[in-house]
TrEMBL record:
Top-level taxon of the source organism: Bacteria
Domain spans labelled Flavodoxin-like: 4-143
Keywords from the named record: Electron transport, Flavoprotein, FMN, Transport
Pfam family, one: Flavodoxin_1
Family affiliation: Belongs to the flavodoxin family.
The keyword Nucleotide-binding appears for this protein: no
Provenance organism: Paenibacillus germinis
Cofactor(s) required for function per UniProt: FMN
Name assigned to this protein: Flavodoxin
């Protein structure tokens, strides 16, 4: 059975709600993912999983979440060939760099050899009921992309 980890950063809870809904989608499809706040893990841990889902809100002027910075630096010491991955995050369209942290993580995962199987999921601020349904769907589609 495939092992999937979701690692997220969330300051006001929006990206965490997305993480929970994605995890729910995976559970509905029969896989129990490990869900961790980025401050409770490190980049080496994700190398032990077949599927890696990273989530970050965007901060500053299109920056990665502060909490993600150490993890992001640690990613330089791992390689992810043969892994499948996806990225999500809550964003705010009043900023010019909409959800840029999602794009940053997609680029990094690809550089490390992972196959990013889904387009990054960007949700405006707090996920609505429909947005949460999209997140659950995202989880299910990710599982399908793993060939499970
Ligand atoms: N959202 C963007 O899409 N792009 C940005 O560049 C951006 N910069 C931000 C800078 C500041 C100081 C703050 C307070 C918010 C910014 N946001 C930006 C919006 C956050 O990503 C958004 O509020 C998000 O919902 C926070 O997610 P969280 O609840 O998981 O912490």
């Amino acid at each position: 059975m495939s092992k999937i980890i979701i690692v997220f950063a969330s300051m006001t809870g929006n990206t965490e709600e997305m993480a929970d809904a994605i995890a729910e989608g995976l559970k509905e499809a029969g896989i129990e993912p490990v869900v961790k706040n980025v401050i409770d893990t490190n980049a080496e841990e994700i190398t032990h999983y077949d599927g890696i889902i990273l989530g970050s809100y965007t901060w500053g002027d299109g920056d990665l979440a502060d909490d993600f910075l150490d993890f992001y630096d640690e990613m330089d010491d791992i390689q992810l060939d043969g892994k499948k991955a996806a990225v999500f995050g809550s964003c705010d369209s009043s900023y010019s760099e909409y959800g840029a942290a999602v794009d940053t993580l997609v680029t990094k995962l690809k550089e490390l050899g992972a196959e990013v199987t889904l387009e990054g999921l960007k949700i405006e601020l707090s996920p609505s009921k429909d947005d949460k349904a999209l997140c659950r769907q995202f989880g299910k589609q990710f599982l399908q992309s793993l060939g499970v």
